[in-house]
Amino acid sequence: MFVLDAAAVLLVLAAVFGLLNHHVFRLPFAIGMLVSGLLASIGVLVVDPLLPEVHLAESVRGAVLQVDFADAVLNGMLSLLLFAGALHTDLALLRTRLAAILSLATFGVVISTAVAGGAAWFAFGLAGLDVEFGWCLVFGALISPTDPIAVLGIMKAAKAPKDLEIKVIGESLLNDGVGVVLFVVLIGLATAGGHSPTAPHVALVLAHEVLGGLLLGLLAGWACCRAVRSLDEPNLEVLMTLALVMGIGFAAPRLHVSAPLAAVAAGLLIGNSGREHALGDRTELVLDTVWTFLDETLNALLFLLIGIEVLAIDFSHRDYLLAALILVPLVLLARLAGVALPLAALGRRAALGPGAIPVLTWGGLKGGISIALAMKTPDFPGREAVLTATYTVVIFSILVQGLTVGPLIRRVARTQEL
């Protein structure tokens, strides 16, 4: 019953805050939900000292902590959101920039993880915190993936050039899965102690997770396409796509493969080959309508949860906050390294336009997956500092970068037209 009660409360809050944002804040939908959640949380903290006998902050914090944010995002929302994003991505256009996208989503994530991990070790040390380097690398892995949901909305609202849009969206869809796999591997290394796995073993685990996830998604997507080809029942066909994603979420952990990458592969297959060979016009219309609704609703709930989760973060330690503030610009530098180095290595094959690297860097928004991964970490010395740093970087990314990347994209678009 708690799950149903929590879902009911979150949906009511999302509807109310969505209405408030539409009439008052007039911010982009996802950012408006985040701001509303933050303001509600701050309101609780402000009112609590005025009514100490009510214990408002303690009660609300207890309710927030009962919601398993990490499980809700990683095992619930993420695959659905990635499938919805991939469903509306043009695979033909994606192929034209495949080298750049794959390079950013793989080598770029590894480079960003290494640089952000080194930056975290420096920042925590500067703030007087003793966090082992292995856990700093874990922080680098969880903060490197970008949020495809926020990126999709901003790219569409800013009317970005198609060439730039497909690079940013394609990378965002793929790097979540790679980032989660890298996070799992680094967690294993950090907790292994003196029994660290060998490099070939790590490479084998990475290959199994990544390639296995893609294979699972392609096979499941192909089976779904074959099944709906013989149907002309839009409701049943849409139900089958939903069952497909939920089935992937059930099977992937048991097969030790990446569920996010499987969801992306299945979404790309159904959204492209499925549309061409298996889906009728009526089904396609209903499919797009239902998955757009699911996408927007889950997006609203996710960003609302991010805002509310401020109550679960300990900001009372000044050294935690100092390290977090130092890391905000350093994580941006790590993102710049993860973008510029792989694209520079590709040279002309990257087909860079003017301003592409600044947009890819500033538009690499962090989101719910980073917070979820941080909350998924086991207990270790410095965990609260990592949580505080992660939340601070995510809030800065969504509010500051999210509200300013649109004008940057439009400026780049004008430059390309000249």
Topology:
Elements: H1 2-25, H2 29-50, H3 56-66, H4 69-87, H5 91-96, H6 98-126, H7 133-143, H8 148-158, H9 162-191, H10 199-229, H11 234-255, H12 259-277, H13 281-308, H14 318-346, H15 356-362, H16 368-376, H17 383-417
Quick structural overview:
With 418 residues, the protein is mainly α. It contains 17 helices and no strands. It folds into 2 domains: 2-65, no CATH class; 70-417, Na+/H+ antiporter like fold.
Provide structural commentary:
With 418 residues, this protein is an all-alpha fold. Helix content is 82%, strand content 0%. The chain folds into two domains: 2-65, no CATH class; 70-417, Na+/H+ antiporter like fold (Up-down Bundle). Helix 9 packs across helix 10. The mean pLDDT is 86.
CATH topology of the largest domain: Na+/H+ antiporter like fold
Please report the number of helical segments: 17
**Average pLDDT figure:** 86
Roughly what percent helix?
A: over 70%
Strand content: under 5%
The run of helices and strands is HHHHHHHHHHHHHHHHH
Largest sheet: none
Q: Can you identify the CATH class of the largest domain? A: Mainly Alpha
Distance separating the two termini: 59 Å
Q: What's the domain count?
A: 2
Radius of gyration: 21 Å
Number of strands: 0
Class per helix and strand makeup: mainly alpha
CATH arch. level architecture of the largest domain: Up-down Bundle
The unreliable regions are none
User: What is the approximate shape?
Assistant: globular
Search tags:
418 residues; Na+/H+ antiporter like fold; 2 domains; globular
